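Quick start: load a record and inspect it. Here is VWCE protein:
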Amino acid sequence: RGIPRKHGTRWMEPGCQSCTCQEGQVLCEAVSCSVPCSHPLPAPAGGCCPTCTGCLHEGVARAEGDVFSPSDGNCTVCVCLAGNISCLSPECSPGSCPSPSLADCCSCTPEKCNFRGRTYAHGARFSLDGDDCTTCVCQGGEVECSFTPCPMLDCPQHQRHLGPGQCCSTCRDPPAPAGCFLDDNGVEFPVGQIWSPGDPCELCICQADGSVSCQRTDCVETCPYPIRIPGQCCPDCSAGCTYMGRIFSNNETFPSALDPCLSCICLVR
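Running the structure step on this input writes:
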């Protein structure tokens, strides 16, 4: 092939042919591979012989030490070790399943459950007698029971209530207010109570929902000299007259403060 070779030289030709030069002649023969494993990987690029560093199983390359389950293996576990595949299958005894975990792996009948005088099939769910808050399930001859989960409540303990036939507590409605409590002076007024908060022209009432409603009184003066009584909202025009800081009764006469020759009289109209 246009390349000179010395006597005794050995080289590889395409197709895994091992060739040697013997006294002017080229002798070639196919490479013989000794594969000491059951599931070798194909030869790497540029190589001729398969390798046992890894495994080829069902067309899938597995790394050394890889643990896997075959596609049709019923709970079978396999491992790749030095090009060999070793598989382990669960031991299934005839009749009832040895454990609930093997019920899906073995061709067996899961064991039934005898609970409080009743027989339940494997996988059956039921509640305790008279207690719908507890759910039980039969698993391979054993009964497992759990309580119904309850939601978290955001009300204090004294407002929680467990009704008949209920599994979880609920929050009661807060009690209706018995009156109105004023934080500024610490006085509590019963519902319907009317009071003045300090201004005689303002009246407040305690509502049924515990709120306070206040309203001011607008005074209409019907006389030019009304009497202002302490603690009373509106001036009084029926009791007499106020003149220059003095109070005079109805029909009472008195001298004028501006002219001593003038006489005044208080007339209530």
